[in-house]
Amino acid sequence: MNNEDTIFIDTKQLAERWRMDARSIHNLRLKNKGPSYIQPSGPNGKVLYDLNEIKSGKKDQGYQMKHALLSPSSADKWTKCPAMPTLAAKVDYQVGLPAAVGTLIHSMTEQLLKGFLVDVTLEDYWLGKTELVEDFEIIVDQDMIDCAKIYVDYVQDRAKRLNGKLLVEQKVRLQEISEDLYGYADALIITPHKMCVIDLKTGKYPVSPEHNKQAMIYAIGALSRYGNEDTEVEITIVQPRATWGGKPIKTWTTSAEFLVNWAYDFLKPSVDACLEENPVYVYGDHCRWCNARSICDLYKQYNKGEDNDGK
């Protein structure tokens, strides 16, 4: 950014502005999956804005969920049904209330991890507020805030213990496999010999880190940029609302060699199958979560007489 294209706004004033208009946070950056418009690197603790990007309208994204054609978060579906990405691209992306709540909680975690709140707690800023997320009006309660804090506490503690570099909402690409395969890791911790991939899950259905396709894709993308063949990879799911024996955090440790082999033995063939001119449709349990099932002929064949509008 050039100096003439830069302004500085005091973070305390910005926090007050956010209290009056919470949605402006997201209009400025928080869930826009792209270059950061807010950099906490200005002088005297002030926030730096790039006026060119703000004037261009790139900031005005709101609470929109954007996904790659081969989104890591949908990998468990498209690795089973190659036709899913192409078909899903023909319908508007729909989310339910749990996913919308998850988007809001992720925004809270990003505020804390990137230091956007100054002398303001999550309770001060969020508790009791009503936010519009993907057409859902959500009232922020203490449970949502606690979920965000458990995740942030773990990420910050792990980064401190490992003395590692913390990357938040980091874009990872797997160009070696496909230009259509990329995503945004919730948190990465990079050290000379270990890499941590930490994913926040806000739902109640337990998610395991072991052989978790979404997290493994993040790890492979991060390895190509920050790791090497000797890097140990730690994949962690933080899921405060679903516990394993009372534990909301579970970790699986693997190796760079294992992940690279998986990428070329399993992931690449799966991606290639999705990108064929006439990809194959496969029916199964994964269809329950598919955004395209309302227009899928195969799904309708197996669910005749049922409501197929996806609701």
**Number of helical segments with 4 or more residues:** 11
Percent range for β-strand residues:
15-25%
Q: Give the biggest beta sheet.
A: 5 strands, mixed
End-to-end separation:
45 Å
| Helix proportion range | 25-40%
Structural class: alpha+beta
Low-confidence regions: 1-65, 307-311
- How would the global form be characterised? globular
Question: What can you tell me about this protein's structure?
Answer:
By secondary structure, the chain is α+β, with helices and mostly antiparallel strands. It has two domains: 1-62, no CATH class; 70-90 and 150-311, Lambda Exonuclease, Chain A. Helices cover 36% and strands 18% of the residues. The chain has helices at residues 11-20, 23-28, 51-56, 75-78, 84-88, 97-113, 122-126, 142-162, 213-226, 256-274, 297-302, and strands at 6-9, 38-39, 47-50, 130-133, 136-139, 165-173, 182-190, 194-200, 232-238, 249-255. It has a five-stranded mixed β-sheet with strand order 6-7-8-9-10. Helix 6 crosses helix 8 and helix 9 packs across helix 10.
Outline the fold blueprint.
Elements lengths: L5 E4 L1 H10 L2 H6 L9 E2 L7 E4 H6 L18 H4 L5 H5 L8 H17 L8 H5 L3 E4 L2 E4 L2 H21 L2 E9 L8 E9 L3 E7 L12 H14 L5 E7 L10 E7 H19 L22 H6 L9
Parallel strand pairs: 8-9
Antiparallel strand pairs: 1-3, 2-3, 4-5, 6-7, 7-8, 9-10
Helix pairs in contact: 6-8, 9-10
In short:
The protein is of the alpha+beta class and 311 residues long. The chain has helices at residues 11-20, 23-28, 51-56, 75-78, 84-88, 97-113, 122-126, 142-162, 213-226, 256-274, 297-302, and strands spanning 6-9, 38-39, 47-50, 130-133, 136-139, 165-173, 182-190, 194-200, 232-238, 249-255.
